[in-house]
Amino acid sequence: MAQPVLEIKDLTVAISGGGDRPNAIENVSFSVAKNEIVCVVGESGSGKSVTSQAVLQLLAKGQLKIAGGSIKLEGDELTTMTASQIRHVRGMRASMVFQEPMTALNPVERIGEQIGEVLEIHTDLDANQRRTKVLEVMRAVHLPDPEQMIDAYPHQLSGGQRQRVMIAAALVLDPALLIADEPTTALDVTTQAQILKLIKELQVRRDTGVLFITHDFGVVAEIAD
Ligand code: ADP
Ligand code: MG
Fold first, then answer.
1. Most-buried pick from 25, 83, 87, 216 (CB within 10 A)?
2. Which ligand is nearest to the CA of 16?
3. For residue 223, what are the CA distances in angstroms to 23, 48, 165, 217?
């Protein structure tokens, strides 16, 4: 069998003082293969977000800490990486889409800049080349009138469009792994269905491994391998 894109083994995340229990998650193990969508399902508070945040070292500092286990991305151990090593992984090899795009997007920065930010950090592309690439990925996520929207601000977009922007930003560098933490929960049913269809379409086209987090079994039935 080919090496998984993501392999989590016996992952335990401890809560430091004042928590409702000693560990947010205990001995979690699963893996995601290339071109596979794995859903993690569970009730509110069961540790889904903590699991996904642990992958890219996004756990709340001073509150949550990996206490055991291993997280490998294409064979490379992530839990022991330094901050600068993990920055290199983020956006390039693995990226994340959150439930509420409004909190993840910068309200005073244009859409195009936010999608292109990872290109600025991780590539040598000049401003023109970045613009071309941003327009291309905006088209791929079916944002209407990209040439117009590239200069828009988040508040000028609908919720579904904002989620498409998040997905575009996450996928612009073709990462091997996409982590989506309840990406459709805040959307109405029709928009939710469109976003699910989009994730599936992009995942197949790019062979991406997807870790998809949800509390909704209808969504699981729709999207999971
Ligand atoms: P889910 O995403 O499945 O709804 P979470 O992963 O957000 O659940 O949370 C799991 C548990 O981890 C919570 O019930 C809480 O006990 C603990 N937890 C989450 N975030 C924090 C935090 N920042 N500080 C302390 N405990 C936390
Ligand atoms: Mg959550």
1. 25
2. 1
3. 30, 17, 20, 10
Nearest-CA residue for atom 22 of ligand 1: 63
Q: How many residues does the chain have?
A: 225
| Nearest ligand to residue 51 Cα | 1
* CB-CB contact of 205 with 35 (8 Å): no
CA distance 184 to 115: 19
Residue 97's nearest CA partner among 141, 32, 47 is 141
Q: Which residues surround ligand 2, an ion (CB under 5 A)?
A: 48-49
- Strand, helix or coil for residue 19: coil
pTM reported for the whole predicted model: 0.92
pLDDT tens, residue by residue, 58-112: 999 999 999 999 999 999 999 999 999 999 999 899 999 988 767 789 999 999 9
Helix (H) or strand (E) holding 119: helix 111-122
